[in-house]
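User: Fold this; tokens only.

Assistant: Input:
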Amino acid sequence: MQTKSIDTPLSEITLRRYEKPYNLSKRELVRKLCLSLGLLNPGDSRDVIVDVLYVLLEANAEQKKLSSEEIRDGVLQLRKSEKLDETGTAASNIRRQIRRLRELLIAEKVKNDYRIAEFGRLKDIFDDKIEKFFVPSITERIREYIDAADESFLNKRNG
């Protein structure tokens, strides 16, 4: 019997470029941000991550930390006001979406509450944590694989 190995990445990021953000509603702006950062896939109908980030951004403006239940309540209220269904709003899924934001270093947990990292601006978070820390660590590892592949395959040609 053959066994399959599961390749689990240590970290990953998807970045997409869209048109400039002109005349977008707040929710649509957050949706495009989620698409740009790979938190949401194009055409994905399961978009509760948009609402989770939206609620955290609203709380960030007031420097307010929220429990996962408060985030869920905010998501439900937002989806109701936007006339969206409640698909994906189970407490377990809200916590999973918060975890995704934490993995991307956008949100953080303080005791049992959550907030945008250090109550910061998204620009600063992107600059300091994603662009200067997260992306370089990934590209450096990719370079190591490229060097190993070149070494392995070019030595075969030269040897």
